[in-house]
Amino acid sequence: MNAIWTRIIALGAGTILGFAPLSSIAEPLPMPGQSESEWRYTLTPYAFLPARTSGTSTIAGTSVPLDLDFKDALDLLDFALAATFEMWRGDFGIIVDANYVQLEADGSLPSPPGATFAVDIRQKWLGVLAAYRVVDSTYGVQNQRYSIDLQGGVRYNSLRQTVDITVGAGPLPQLGGDEGWFEPVIGARAMWRLSEKWAAAVALDLGGFGAGGNDLQVGLNAGFDYQLWKKNSLRFGYRYYSMDYSTTLATGPFAYDVSQHGPYLGVTFRF
């Protein structure tokens, strides 16, 4: 396989994780003055902006080392949408995390004359987790509140990655394909109220555990919440994300062993 073909696979496989889903970025504690005896809801549209993507991707039995920055992924982005919805009453909560991203790339190959390629990449993600607040206490001389909640549930992943080469009168056999699987997810999150407007949170989620070929998926977030208005707040911080997935398609081994890190940014609406 020549260097041009290897680069196609690197761009296509490497950027599917370029806008990886970000779960559990909202927090279980109410804003000051908000009731806990009734259901309260938060909706957080967000974006994860990976400063670096590294690892190894395999398509049709060919493994390619990856070392991509955010610009590499942004250049290929066609459409992306992601949001987290949470509902809480007392110490019990439900978390729903949804993500869709589509990336496309096409162009000409230097040989044979007239040969073209097209890469189509799509990832859909939907997770539903139950959460329970196991710690609820205060700290410091101002008795600021902090909490810890544990989470568990299921997530559905759908992944498309195809590469089409056209030479002369017709296309060559397509490489890659579509995969979908359910996997268990567990998580934990700690939150500290810093002031009336500021809060901090750290969250860890683990998924996969071998289900559907996903050995382990790790997400670690650390960030802040700043109350912009009475019911809305800005969320920002830093995230580490990794995925170790492998399977075998009709065209050969298909795998990701990829890690990412970078900032995230979202806006939370409470109602």
UniProtKB/TrEMBL annotation:
InterPro entries associated with the record: Beta-barrel_OMP (IPR027385), OMP/PagP_B-barrel (IPR011250)
Keywords: Signal
UniProt-listed SUPFAM superfamilies: OMPA-like
Origin: domain of life: Bacteria
Outer membrane protein beta-barrel domain boundaries: 123-271
Pfam families: OMP_b-brl (PF13505)
Signal peptide as annotated in the record: none
Segments traversing the membrane: none
Record-given protein name: Outer membrane beta-barrel protein
Record organism: Parasedimentitalea psychrophila
